Amino acid sequence: MSIQNQYTPQSSSGLETTPFESAEEAWFWFIQAQRARDDGARFTFGAGLLHRPCEPMDILKVAERLHRNRRLVMDHFMVLRHYGRRMMAPDPTRAKEIRAYKLWSEAMERLEEVFVRKGIVVRPNNVIPFSAFSERRRG
Fold first, then answer.
1. Of 33-47, 78-92, 115-129, which gets the smallest average pLDDT?
2. Residues 85, 91, 97, CA angle at the centre, nearest 5°?
3. What is the per-residue pLDDT for 37?
4. Within 10 Å of residue 34's Cβ, how many Cβ atoms?
5. Quick count: other Cβ atoms within 10 Å of Cβ 84?
């Protein structure tokens, strides 16, 4: 196993996995899985409609590692939890959600770079990363 793939989740069952298209999609999936788990659901790998390249706890572990490395702060987690439970991202056109949108965008950008590296998220070829779009708008 190469060093690059050493920490990438591997499917031991040989099932074809479907990676997420964005960190946002992965985060909402994680929140739904946590909600189901809190309600008493039990998870078995490969039992869902889509076979994902990770388990829900892998998403949490990435977020916790970013927090330990001070790349995400508690304000990010508060916004991720609140809007994750609502199953929608903050709306930048609403005055009360502007700060939440900024925190959400920062968190998604930081999560996505790790998810892409681990193979959890695979961007389609025609999608521009959020950070590149932000830089173009400012310049």
1. 33-47
2. 85
3. 85
4. 18
5. 21
The CB density around residue 92, as the number of other CB atoms within 10 Å, is 13
State how far the alpha carbon of 85 is from the alpha carbons of 8, 24, 33, 99, in Å: 27, 13, 11, 18
H helices within the chain, ranges in order? Answer: 23-38, 56-68, 74-86, 98-118, 130-138
pTM of the complete model: 0.76
The residue to which tokens 């996505």 are assigned? 112
Residue 13 to residue 122: CA distance in whole angstroms = 21
Identify the CA nearest to 27 among candidates 52, 2, 1. 52
Measure Cα distances from 78 to 63, 83, 100 in Å: 12, 9, 9
Residue with tokens 């779009």: 133
pLDDT at residue 92, rounded to an integer:
95
Report residue 121: phi and psi, to 5°: -115, 135
What residue spans define the domains of the chain? 23-38+54-126
**What angle separates helix 56-68 from helix 74-86, to the nearest 10 degrees?**
150
